[in-house]
């Protein structure tokens, strides 16, 4: 159906090229194939083709996520963010796809949605495949983009609906094209959901020398990234406009997650002449990050070194790493602490209970060579076109 739409929408002869069959592999980089002198109407059609290509890419990613190796696993799909996973399984059970109307009603039990234009805009953002349904995969992508969970729709409203720098269904080349008009205004920027790393943001900006660069920030809420970039002088003018929205109300970051370590677990590690909080890869630093969605713990330097070696799976269970969160670990201090953690849900509402470790732990990888720490105010890491 979609290929038929593409063939009907974009007639190759109207772009000055020979008429012929349109194949899926030909819709990957449409902007790079368009001559600069193509009339506006032709470029508009190529823009439509680019959007359809992105939708095809979303469909492919969704099928790959729900049918890895050709085997259905939607009923056991693990959402990256724990609160989102709990919400889906409690309200949707083992289902992996819901009609939009039903999903909207269920989401409203936690995050009320205003009917009308707001609900329509939300549907446009979540429904990546434009199917009129919401899959567990699409919800996973949405909750990663607009984290944290407690202010999910508020984050979406301020970042996607009201922010002039937000661009949907835009490709790498189109970002370069749009920012050309702002090359004499360093600090101009726009941001979009990454086309290939779904669940992550891609930010294009004009550097101090007029170059147009693009970066994919990882493992931070977008509001925090934009505020830090504004402070460092990178993200000042959304889409070239002088007014940069104030996102400080979204910068109320969730407190670091705390992991309870019981007395029994401490005794077990002491018997091995070790401690629970010690990173089991380097045996030097304490654990301070939790890999998502599997939940394994290690120190941030080892995680950085592990990912620097181009490995995108957990070093313990080989589950795909979709993200990570900072955590802090504190010891069990008797019955009073246990009772406080149960009764004081308002004060310690973000604490985590550590699950029982499996009897047969997976083999640990060899200790990696740890890279030097980056300067705090380093320029955002620029990524190539193939990654965004």
From TrEMBL:
Domain of life: Eukaryota
Domain Cbl-PTB: 1-249
Pathway of action: Protein modification; protein ubiquitination
SUPFAM superfamilies linked to this entry: EF-hand, N-terminal domain of cbl (N-cbl), RING/U-box, SH2 domain
Record GO biological process: cell surface receptor signaling pathway; negative regulation of epidermal growth factor receptor signaling pathway; negative regulation of MAPK cascade; negative regulation of neuron apoptotic process; protein stabilization; protein ubiquitination; response to glial cell derived neurotrophic factor; ubiquitin-dependent protein catabolic process
GO cellular component, one term: plasma membrane
The protein's Enzyme Commission number: 2.3.2.27
Alphabetical list of Gene3D superfamilies matching this protein: Adaptor protein Cbl, N-terminal domain, EF-hand, SH2 domain, Zinc/RING finger domain, C3HC4 (zinc finger)
Keywords of this entry: Calcium, Metal-binding, Phosphoprotein, Repeat, SH3-binding, Transferase, Ubl conjugation, Ubl conjugation pathway, Zinc, Zinc-finger
Catalytic activity line of the entry: S-ubiquitinyl-[E2 ubiquitin-conjugating enzyme]-L-cysteine + [acceptor protein]-L-lysine = [E2 ubiquitin-conjugating enzyme]-L-cysteine + N(6)-ubiquitinyl-[acceptor protein]-L-lysine
Keyword Ribonucleoprotein listed: no
GO molecular function: calcium ion binding; epidermal growth factor receptor binding; phosphotyrosine residue binding; receptor tyrosine kinase binding; SH3 domain binding; ubiquitin protein ligase activity; zinc ion binding
InterPro entries: Adaptor_Cbl, Adaptor_Cbl_EF_hand-like, Adaptor_Cbl_N_dom_sf, Adaptor_Cbl_N_hlx, Adaptor_Cbl_SH2-like, Cbl_PTB, EF-hand-dom_pair, SH2_dom_sf
Pfam family, one: Cbl_N3
PROSITE patterns attached to this UniProt entry: CBL_PTB, ZF_RING_1, ZF_RING_2
Record note on domains: The N-terminus is composed of the phosphotyrosine binding (PTB) domain, a short linker region and the RING-type zinc finger. The PTB domain, which is also called TKB (tyrosine kinase binding) domain, is composed of three different subdomains: a four-helix bundle (4H), a calcium-binding EF hand and a divergent SH2 domain.
Reported function: E3 ubiquitin-protein ligase which accepts ubiquitin from specific E2 ubiquitin-conjugating enzymes, and transfers it to substrates, generally promoting their degradation by the proteasome.
Protein name: E3 ubiquitin-protein ligase CBL
Organism: Macaca nemestrina (Pig-tailed macaque)
Lineage: Eukaryota, Metazoa, Chordata, Craniata, Vertebrata
């Amino acid at each position: 159906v979609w290929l038929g739409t593409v063939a009907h929408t974009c007639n190759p002869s109207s772009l000055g090229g020979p008429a012929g069959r349109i194949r899926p592999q030909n819709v990957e980089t449409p902007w790079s194939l368009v001559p600069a002198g193509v009339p506006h109407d032709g470029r508009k059609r190529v823009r439509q083709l680019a959007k359809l290509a992105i939708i095809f890419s979303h469909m492919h990613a969704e099928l790959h996520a729900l049918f890895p190796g050709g085997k259905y696993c939607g009923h056991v799909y693990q959402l990256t963010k724990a609160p989102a996973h709990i919400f889906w399984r409690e309200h949707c059970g083992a289902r992996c796809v819901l009609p939009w109307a039903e999903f909207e009603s269920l989401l409203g039990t936690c995050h009320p949605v205003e009917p009308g234009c707001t609900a329509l805009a939300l549907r446009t953002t979540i429904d990546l495949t434009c199917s009129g349904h919401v899959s567990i995969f699409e919800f996973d992508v949405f909750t990663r983009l607009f984290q944290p969970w407690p202010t999910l729709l508020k984050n979406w409203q301020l970042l996607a609906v009201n922010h002039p720098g937000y661009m949907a269904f835009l490709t790498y080349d189109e970002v370069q094209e749009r920012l050309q008009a702002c090359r004499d205004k360093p600090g101009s920027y726009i941001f979009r959901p990454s086309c290939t790393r779904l669940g992550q943001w891609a930010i294009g900006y004009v550097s101090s020398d007029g170059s147009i660069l693009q970066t994919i920030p990882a493992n931070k809420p977008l509001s925090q990234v934009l505020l830090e970039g504004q402070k460092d002088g990178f993200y000042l003018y959304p889409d070239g406009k002088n007014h940069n929205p104030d996102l400080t109300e979204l910068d109320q970051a969730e407190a670091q997650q705390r992991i309870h370590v019981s007395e029994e677990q401490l005794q077990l590690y002491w018997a091995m002449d070790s401690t629970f909080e010690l990173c089991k890869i380097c045996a030097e630093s304490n654990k301070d990050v939790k890999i998502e969605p599997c939940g394994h713990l290690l120190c941030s330097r080892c995680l950085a070194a592990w990912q620097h070696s181009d490995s995108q799976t957990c070093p313990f269970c080989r589950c795909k790493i979709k993200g990570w969160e900072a955590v802090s670990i504190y010891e069990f201090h008797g019955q009073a602490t246990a009772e406080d953690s149960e009764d004081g849900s308002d004060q310690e509402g973000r604490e985590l209970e550590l699950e029982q470790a499996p009897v047969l732990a997976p083999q640990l990888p060899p200790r990696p060579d740890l890279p030097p720490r980056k300067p705090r105010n380093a320029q955002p890491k620029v990524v190539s076109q193939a990654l965004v």
